[in-house]
Amino acid sequence: MTAEITDETLKAAGWTMIETTGFLNLIGPLWERSVEGNHEYAILAVDKHHNRRNRVQGGVLMTLADRASGMIARVVSGRPTLATVQMDVHFIDAGQIGELLIAKPRVVRVTHTLIFTTAEVVADGRVVATASGVFKILKDNS
After folding, report:
1. Domain of residue 112, residue span
2. How many whole angstroms separate alpha carbon 93 and alpha carbon 100?
3. Residue 117's CATH number
4. CA–centroid distance for 74 within its chain
């Protein structure tokens, strides 16, 4: 298990807290940083994230992969409004309470209307989930 992670240790490691609303506000806070030009997003797994086995609930991993993929799709497209039309998630290992869950998204392809992504969610050096997503580019405010 990793040492206790605090807001201060995250900030010292280059993480910045992102303002969130809605559902993500319930499972956050959400953190972001850039490592060698690559965007990363993270959630610290705390007690509210546990399932009946006292591991990280799969929905938390799915939400993190979806949000990270959507955010990188927005960065690459420059478009403010996208919608997830497909997200395939594979659970590789269990996330543990107390671990920092880091999503590492990547854009695979951009078309006029769709953005294809992949993401890897890691915790303490292990891959805990992988995801591939498709995002629809929407007209602004639709």
Report:
1. 7-137
2. 14
3. 3.10.129.10
4. 14
